[in-house]
Structures are given as C-alpha cells and as structure tokens.
Amino acid sequence: MKVAGIYLAAGSSRRMGKYKLSLPTQNGSLGSLALKTALKTSLDQIFIITRKKRVDEWLPPELFSHKKCVVVDCPTAHLGQSESLKCGIKQVEAIEAEAAMIMLADQPLITAAMLEELLTIMRKKKTTFVAASFNEVIMPPVLFSASMYPQLLHLQGDKGARALLKGEFLTNGQILPFTEKELFFDIDTDEEYETLLSLMSSFVWS
C-alpha cells in the first residue's frame, strides 16, 4: 500500500510574531525535527508543503535533496490551512497514493514509533482514516485513505482535516489513543519554544 506524507510547513507564524520553523534547537531547526522523524518511517514519499521563498531558512540541504522528499510551493497558503492541505492532496493524488498522512511541522516531538503504529493500522485494515488522540481529543497526525481526497479538497479557509473528524463519520475509521502529552506538543509562543528546548534535553525519540 503506497502511503505518502503531507508535511504542512507553510504557516506564517502570526501568533508567534517570528518565523518559528527556523528557530534553532539542539537537533536542528524546529521545522526540520518532525520531518527527520517522518523519514525514519515506512512512508513512501513526503511532500513538504511550504513557501519556497522561506524554505531555505529551516530546511537543511540534506533533507531538501532527500530522495523521499518533494518540496511543494503553495502560493495560496496565506488563505488558510485548508489551502496548504489541498496543495498536498493534489500531490498525493498525482502519484496515486492509496493513503496520505497529514503532519504538522510545528509538532516536533512526534516519534517514528507513533507514526508507524498509525501506518500499520491503515495498511492492515485499509480503513477510511486512522487518527491519533490524546485525552479523547483527535490530534494530528492523521491518515486518510484515497476515498477521502475529494472531501479534503473541498475544505475552505482555516479548516484543517480535523473538521471532517466528527459525528457519525468517526465510525468509518479508527482512533488510536496515546498517553504521552509531549507527542502532541506544538509551538505557537515564545514560552512554548522555551518549554520545547527544556523537554528536548530529556526527551527520547523512538
């Protein structure tokens, strides 16, 4: 089963007031951390959805040229997260990927083990979606089968893929609960960035 990743990295960091993906950490730029993790998994390809004029600020050359990585400029990204997502869905459609994993570039503490758990369920059960959750709240990363691409392409504005994951639709897929809060830690403020640096001193990626 061909599964591609959609790595959403086209945000403007408005809430933080500075371009957060380029912020330094002990393991590289903030934006590169989750991508390095995703490259350790069985994903067949990863589409990095970004704004090309800023990609050099956070994406190191070895990842830019990695055989699994494809950098995609999304000129409509300023119109909302749904536009970045749609840029990615068009790419996975083009390579006829049977499923797509949606990941956020500002969620740096995901692990390869976590991603592989989600991928294994999708490959074994071929369900409509496989989503991670924490405290009964669905969180990225999320996997969608190709049958969902048309609905994802109809999202508008700042509505992300989670907008579809509600009500009766939830019976069509599988939700995998995780107990480690750090896996879902995302960075939107200076305080969260400082917390990340502290967490990284003791965090073990697996």
Topology diagram in text:
Blueprint (H helix, E strand, L loop, with lengths): L2 E7 L14 E2 L2 E2 H9 L6 E6 L1 H4 L5 H4 L4 E5 L7 H14 L4 E6 L7 H14 L3 E6 L2 E9 L3 H4 L21 E4 L12 H11 L6
Parallel strand pairs: 1-4, 1-6, 4-5, 7-9
Antiparallel strand pairs: 2-3, 6-8, 7-8
Q: Describe it for me?
A:
The protein has helices at 30-38, 52-55, 61-64, 81-94, 112-125, 149-152, 190-200; strands at residues 3-9, 24-25, 28-29, 45-50, 69-73, 99-104, 129-134, 137-145, 174-177. The chain is α/β, with parallel strands linked by helices. It has a single domain (3-200), classed as Spore Coat Polysaccharide Biosynthesis Protein SpsA, Chain A. The strands form two sheets. The chain has a seven-stranded mixed sheet, with helices on both faces. The chain has a two-stranded antiparallel sheet with strand order 2-3. Strand 7 and strand 8 (137-145) form a beta hairpin. The mean pLDDT is 92.
